[in-house]
Amino acid sequence: MQKIKLIGPKFLCAPLALLGMEIHPAESEAETRHKLASIAKTGEAALVFIFERQAANLKDEIEQLNQRPELTVALLPDNRGQTGLAAERINKLVRHAIGVEITGRE
């Protein structure tokens, strides 16, 4: 069965385990990179959530994994708010899908 997994700081992940997500605590970029690679290798996950701040330097890895049809890596804001990385990703997907940017910028 495909699973939903979450990689991030333990204090942010623990409450989301109550929703049925399988959590993978990671406090550093290196831990996050290692956990993401490990999850991708097993093929058990259909969806992996990572907090934006932890994904900031993993754009290439995430982009590669999102090319695979069986796995989606999605970004979430953390307790300090958005960094814009998730919105950037959504804009890119929309531009690719319909050829125009639909979100306004000020």
Fold and architecture overview:
There is one protein chain. The protein has 5 helices and 4 strands. The longest helix has 14 residues, at 29-42. It has helices at 10-13, 29-42, 52-55, 59-65, 85-98, and strands spanning 3-8, 22-25, 45-51, 72-76. The chain is α/β, with parallel strands linked by helices and 106 residues long. It has a 4-stranded parallel beta sheet with strand order 2-1-3-4. 41% of the residues lie in helices and 21% in strands. It has a single domain (3-98), classed as ATPase, V1 complex, subunit F (Rossmann fold). It starts with a strand and ends in an 8-residue tail after the last helix. The mean pLDDT is 81. Pfam families: ATP-synt_F. Keywords: Ion transport, Transport. This is V-type ATP synthase subunit F.
Helix content: 40-55%
The count of DSSP E runs of length 2 or more, i.e. the number of strands, is 4
Mind summarizing the main beta sheet?
Answer: 4 strands, parallel
Low-confidence stretches: none
Number of helical segments with 4 or more residues: 5
Q: Strand fraction band? A: 15-25%
| CATH-assigned fold name | Rossmann fold
With strands numbered from the N-terminus, the spatial order across the biggest sheet is 2-1-3-4
Would you tell me the overall average pLDDT?
A: 81
**Structural class, from secondary structure content?**
alpha/beta
Sketch the topology as an H/E string, one letter per element: EHEHEHHEH
Query: How would you describe the shape?
Result: globular
CATH uppermost class: Alpha Beta
Supply the CATH architecture.
3-Layer(aba) Sandwich
According to CATH, the homologous superfamily is: ATPase, V1 complex, subunit F
As a whole number of angstroms, the C-alpha radius of gyration is 14 Å
**End-to-end separation:** 44 Å
Number of domains: 1
